[in-house]
Design a protein that fits this description.
Blueprint lengths: L8 H4 L12 H13 L5 E4 L6 H13 L7 E5 L6 H13 L9 E6 L6 H13 L4 E7 L7 H6 L1 E4 L5 H14 L6 H11 L3 H12 L6 H7 L5 H12 L3 H15 L3 H12 L8 H19 L4 H19 L2
Parallel strand pairs: 1-4, 1-5, 2-3, 3-4
Helix pairs in contact: 2-3, 4-5, 7-8, 8-9, 8-10, 9-10, 11-12, 11-13, 11-15, 12-15, 13-14, 14-15
């Protein structure tokens, strides 16, 4: 019914105008003021992935130039085209040409600019000075500290924040209604938790889940390749109650049925330790979290998944007996 090879919903439902952008009100208000004055500075959009940095840049350009805004905008993904030659050729040629129209400047959007080499950033710094009369530069970065100081000092910095739960869930619900997909609200909340405020990832998870039919909590965990938290909690409770063999059997079921790696399971265990639904004394949570970190390190260094996770459950069983959980 739905195929990922079709147009990605993350692109299809991207806001086209600043009026459609949510959760970044302060940023949008500042940009609207720039647009009304037809006076836009060089800008640096910084923040976590999937919070709307590139989308806001496109929406601003749309509000400035109209439907044909791409004629006045050069977009480069700096993680791919990050060498100094690109800055000296493609960017320079676009920046030096003048624009005809009501808006006296063009826009160069450098996506993921924090991946640019140091030499390319130095070359860009000079272009920003030479062609500021007829070109404005917008840089997006997940890690603004990787942008050199001379560029940061030339830009107005806009810091994007992770999207709120209600904004993400309401947008996902709107997409489900538009695509005529049956969904459970709890499943959309789970998608938000898994995406950690990344709207692009949230929409892609929703589309993958919709490909299997109705969007439910179990389906969401299935498409992202994670075990249901309920089963992870059961494994923890079995181990802490001293029932090591049953906990080990549950672990094997999780690894086989869900195809999880050892690192995946440790990460889910770590998440569940601090879940309010898991009734564990705070002192024990500290001990488990500390040992989970040690097991995760061993797994990353190449230790055997099953042996290390069995050792983890054995330690939990000993802790549980000692503290009588």
């Amino acid at each position: 019914m739905y195929f990922m090879s079709e147009l990605l919903w993350a692109e299809k439902y991207r806001p086209r105008s600043l009026d459609e952008v949510v959760n970044q009100k302060e940023i949008v208000d500042r940009l609207k003021r720039f647009i009304s004055e037809r006076n836009v500075p060089h800008m640096l959009f910084a923040g976590p992935p999937g919070t709307g940095k590139t989308t806001v840049a496109h929406a601003m350009a749309h509000d400035l130039y109209g439907e044909n805004y791409r004629q006045y905008m050069l977009e480069l993904n700096a993680s791919d085209e990050r060498k100094i030659e690109v800055i000296r050729t493609k960017v320079k040629e676009f920046a030096r040409s003048r624009v005809v129209g009501e808006v006296p400047f063009k826009i160069v959007l450098l996506d993921e600019a924090d991946n640019m080499t140091a030499d390319a950033q130095q070359a860009l710094r000079r272009l920003m000075e030479l062609y500021s009369a007829n070109t404005r530069f917008i840089l997006t970065a997940n890690y603004p500290s990787k942008i050199i100081e001379p560029i940061q000092s030339r830009c107005a910095v806009f810091r994007f924040t992770a999207l709120k739960r209600e904004d993400v869930v309401s947008r996902l619900m709107y997409i489900c209604q538009s695509e005529k997909v049956n969904c459970v609200e709890r499943a959309l909340e789970v998608i938000y938790d898994l995406s950690e405020g990344d709207m692009r990832r949230a929409i892609n998870i929703l589309q993958a889940a919709a490909a299997l039919g109705d969007v439910t909590e179990d389906i969401v965990y299935k498409v992202v390749g994670l075990a249901h938290p309920r089963e992870v909690r059961e494994m923890l409770q079995l181990a802490l109650s001293g029932n090591f063999m049953e906990a080990r059997k549950k672990l094997r079921d999780l690894m086989i049925n869900y195809g999880l790696s050892g690192v995946d399971i440790v990460k889910q265990v770590h998440r569940e330790i601090f879940n309010p639904e898991v009734k564990i004394p705070d002192d024990l949570k500290v001990m488990i979290a500390d040992y989970a970190g040690e097991i995760q390190y061993r797994l990353v260094e190449g230790a055997d998944d099953e042996i290390q996770l069995n050792a983890f459950l054995a330690r939990l069983a000993l802790m549980g007996r000692r503290l009588k959980v």
